[in-house]
C-alpha cells in the first residue's frame, strides 16, 4: 500500500515505522513539513500527502482532526480509504463527542471517503508490535466491507492474528472504542505504563 499518514506525532511515527517495516510505502503529512526534516521518513504537506496516497490515515490530534482535515479538503481525500486512529478528547480526558465519535463525524464530513476506525485502543508501540504483549484484541468499525478488509490486511501485516481482530460493525460502532479511551487513560495512570491492551474473552 502507498500510505499517507496525516500527523507527525508519536502515534503517526509509530505507525509509519510499523508500516514501513511491513513493506508499505509511507509519507507523513505535516502542516509545516520543512520543520520535520529530522524524521527518517518522507514528510510532505497535509494535502499533498493525502493526494499522493492510496490509503490515508488520520493520526492528527483528535481534538483538531475535523479542522485539519477540512484544510486538507474533500478533493484531496476523495473516495479513498480513510483510517482514523485518533481519539477526540480534551487534555483532561473528557470526550469531545460524548454522543458520537470522531470516526462518525469524519464519515459525515467526507461522505465519499471510506472511513474505518481502528488502532485507537492501545498505544502506538503496541499496535505496531502486538506480539510484545500477551494475546490481545484490536477493533475495526466502518460501513464499507471492502475498506474494512483492506484494514484487516494491514493489521495482519503489523502482526495481528486473525482471531485478535474484532469487526464491530458500521462506523456508528466507533463510539465504543473511542469512549474506551477514558478507561485506557485510567489504566495507564493506575498501572504506570502504556504497554497494555485489552482482550476479548468468550
Automatic annotation (TrEMBL):
InterPro entries: NAD(P)-bd_dom_sf, P5C_Rdtase_cat_N, STEAP_metalloreductase. SUPFAM superfamilies: NAD(P)-binding Rossmann-fold domains. GO terms for molecular function: oxidoreductase activity. PANTHER family: DUDULIN-RELATED, REDUCTASE. This is Oxidoreductase. Residues 3-87 form the Pyrroline-5-carboxylate reductase catalytic N-terminal domain. Keywords: Oxidoreductase. Pfam families: F420_oxidored. It comes from Brachybacterium avium.
